[in-house]
Design brief:
Helix 1 packs antiparallel against helix 5, helix 1 packs parallel to helix 7 and helix 6 packs parallel to helix 9. The chain is mainly α. The chain contains 21 helices and five strands. 48% of the residues are buried. It is globular and about 75 Å long. InterPro entries: GPI_mannosylTrfase. GO terms for molecular function: mannosyltransferase activity. It is found in: Endomembrane system; Endoplasmic reticulum membrane.
Length: 487
């Protein structure tokens, strides 16, 4: 059995294939970034819209920001590529896509991590783990989304690889601390996993802690600076987040699930292949036990939280898949030593086939489509210089891709069935475009422009000729309605 703590890269492992795997991963992830789906509205309204507001644009302000529950670091990081995208393509879509491409590039750290973990065992393990890290459908799907979970995972896993080196240098420990601190800021609920990881890698050698803490302090200082730069008290968002979600149960209002729910989610994502995947995880966990226990700690912690979403446990998903790849590397090497020809190629093809099948069926089929229809309709609106106001009629605001996808200065209105002010003819002069579910009963003078499949229904764009009186619809401006309904 390989001693994980003292494992060294196989002397026969060449790094040349790593560059090919990174190139493959980059192609897949950039393609995913250019596909305009939205895995979860948080990617837009918790991060993209605040970044757009930092650049002087209009943005939807969700209740989390009104209550001061979100840190400013991730929006600050997104604002850079968003500004560059707007400079390259003024008024176009690149401001939306460039942050996704940057997020996708960041996820390449997982491919490097998989390769490095595998190289500590053999060349077969390196290539197979790197290949799985490059092509596995969940890793590709989540990579471009500007969410805290995949970005935190892209920081924490390479940090773990650095920590589990044999006698890591102070520089490596400081880099690991920086990445772990960044991972904490991006998804503070990953703190238990980070704690387990640090405990298992440092308890025998406490001298690792000072450079680790120094690196983490740099990340925390950056987070505090981002908060201060945007007029917020550093880390007050963390306290308010805990208060609102754990004490006031705000998150529970979005749905609750039993502790066993994530097991069902694994079945929904991996189907019958969960059996060989779990067997491979158990086989491979001995190559990186600290990562294994961190993944389990993360899974257990999130299982105890009433409101559950699959993206919350993405760190565990990524780790477990990499461990499964290492486990399959054990079996592949054993068969190769017994003279079975082309077994490494067969193993890679099996992983590829599993990824393709699972990635195009079940819940994943809906994940790939979700949000793409509304993005295409908003692209039409942005390209139309006759648009002077857009109303979401019975369409939840989170089904839109945000104000950053409209022309600057274009107001967005919300006609919400729970809003007593929504149904008044007085507001109609304020907009000349409506988004509504089909079939829709529309005011006189509107005609259908286009319809797109969205969220299991058909979302349609309707238009009328003429201009707008912005003052007429001011009471149903999207942020005014959200504030009134406390959403």
């Amino acid at each position: 059995m390989v001693n994980w703590a003292n494992a060294r890269p196989d002397s026969c492992v060449r790094t040349a294939p790593l560059f090919g795997l990174i190139a493959l991963a980059l192609i897949l992830r950039v393609a995913a970034a250019l596909w305009p789906n939205v895995h979860h509205p948080d990617a837009i309204f918790q991060y993209m819209e605040p970044a757009w507001r930092m650049l002087g644009g209009d943005g939807v302000i969700s209740w989390e920001y009104r209550y001061g529950m979100r840190g400013q670091l991730l929006p600050v990081l997104i604002a850079g590529p968003m500004a560059l995208g707007e400079w390259i393509d003024p008024g176009g879509s690149f401001a939306f896509f460039l942050p996704r491409i940057v997020a996708a590039i960041c996820s390449l750290s997982i491919v490097w991590s998989a390769w490095t973990l595998g190289a500590r065992v053999s060349s077969i393990h390196a290539v197979l783990a790197g290949f799985v890290g490059a092509i596995w459908f969940e890793l590709v799907h989540f990579a471009p989304h500007t969410l805290g979970e995949p970005l935190a995972t892209a920081a924490i896993i390479p940090a773990a690889v650095l920590l589990t080196r044999d006698a890591p240098s102070r520089r490596a420990l400081a880099a690991s601390g920086l990445l772990l601190g960044l991972g904490f800021l991006l998804r503070f609920q990953y703190a238990p996993a980070i704690g387990v990881l640090v405990a298992l890698t440092c308890w025998r050698d406490p001298s690792r802690l000072p450079p680790l803490i120094a690196g983490g302090s740099i990340a925390l200082a950056a987070g505090a600076a981002a908060d201060l730069a945007n007029g917020a008290t550093p880390f007050a968002w963390l306290i308010e987040n805990v208060r609102q979600n754990l004490i006031n149960d705000r998150a529970a209002g979005f749905g609750v699930s039993p502790p066993s729910a994530y097991l069902g989610r694994f079945w929904a994502m991996w189907s019958v292949l969960i059996v060989p995947i779990v067997a491979a995880i158990w086989r491979g966990h001995r190559h990186a036990p600290a990562l294994f226990w961190a993944a389990l700690a993360n899974l257990l912690f999130h299982s105890l939280i009433a409101h559950k979403e699959y993206r919350f446990i993405f760190l565990s998903v990524a780790i477990l898949i990499l461990l499964a790849a290492l486990g399959s590397g054990d079996w592949t090497r054993r068969l190769r030593e017994r003279g079975v020809r082309f077994v490494a190629l067969a193993a890679a093809l099996l992983w590829l086939g599993a990824s393709l099948v699972l990635g195009m069926t079940g819940d994943m089929a809906a994940f790939w489509r979700d949000g793409a229809g509304s993005v295409r309709l908003f692209d039409r609106l942005r390209a139309d210089d006759r648009v002077c106001g857009v109303a979401l009629d019975g369409v939840p605001f989170h089904r839109s891709p945000g104000l950053n996808r409209l022309r600057p200065g274009t107001p967005l209105y919300l006609i919400d069935p729970d809003d007593p002010l929504a149904r008044s003819d007085h507001y109609m002069p304020g907009y000349n475009r409506i988004l509504a579910w089909a079939p829709a009963r529309l005011p006189k003078g509107y005609s259908t422009v286009a319809c797109e499949e969205e969220g299991g229904g058909k979302l349609c764009l309707f238009a009328r000729a003429g201009g707008c009186d912005a003052d007429a619809a001011r009471p149903i401006a999207v942020n005014t309605v959200l504030r009134r309904l406390d959403r």
